[in-house]
Write a sequence for this structure.
């Protein structure tokens, strides 16, 4: 008789293995929400109709915990300029980040006199001296979301500007002749005692 029970037990185990996870309500057995057709997460911030000079739309951030940026420009070596950014409620996204807006994330765009110089994924940059001729210049940093929109608060872009002035280098003074040194041809003859 033992031989007739064994096939039934094996059959019962097989049925449990096939239907167990689906019928027992295991949370892991359900596909993730994205696979079930749930809509993607709502976008962060409201897209405004306003745009920057390049046509990038502003993305309104809530005033509470809104991103902020500061800029400091110092003379560097060889006429270059060292730029340091300070951010608050903002994190720089690494290269390869998907082009999706996420709260308090993104990159900084660096402008010189209104023209885009570079996109920054960190707080430091060295501005080459050849880009900054003689005169006063405006260095502006503006925070962007990863999708290219401009972070804004109360309809204004989250940015900051520093002015730098480059002057002509002062000419080197002419070396003064040493006392008693000859001044031109025949100077020796003019100074000989007679």
């Amino acid at each position: 008789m033992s031989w007739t029970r064994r096939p039934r037990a094996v059959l019962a185990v097989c049925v449990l293995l096939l239907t167990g996870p689906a019928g027992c309500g295991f949370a892991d057995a359900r596909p993730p929400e994205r696979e079930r057709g749930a809509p993607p997460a709502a976008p962060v911030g409201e897209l405004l109709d306003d745009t920057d000079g390049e046509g990038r739309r502003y993305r309104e951030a809530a005033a509470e915990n809104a991103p902020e940026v500061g800029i400091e420009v110092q003379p560097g070596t060889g006429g270059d300029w060292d730029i340091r950014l300070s951010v608050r409620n903002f994190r720089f996204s690494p290269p390869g980040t998907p082009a999706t807006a996420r709260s308090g994330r993104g990159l900084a765009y660096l402008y010189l006199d209104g023209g885009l110089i570079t996109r920054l994924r960190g707080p430091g940059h060295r501005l080459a001296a050849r880009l900054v001729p003689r005169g006063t210049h405006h260095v502006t940093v503006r925070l962007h979301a990863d999708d290219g929109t401009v972070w804004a608060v109360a309809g204004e872009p989250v940015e900051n500007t520093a002015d730098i002035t480059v002057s002509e280098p002062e000419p080197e003074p002419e070396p003064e002749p040493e006392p008693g040194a000859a001044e031109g041809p025949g100077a020796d003859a003019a100074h000989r005692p007679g």
User: Anything to note?
Assistant: The longest strand covers residues 135-144. The radius of gyration is 35 Å. Residues 1-36 have pLDDT under 50 and may be disordered.
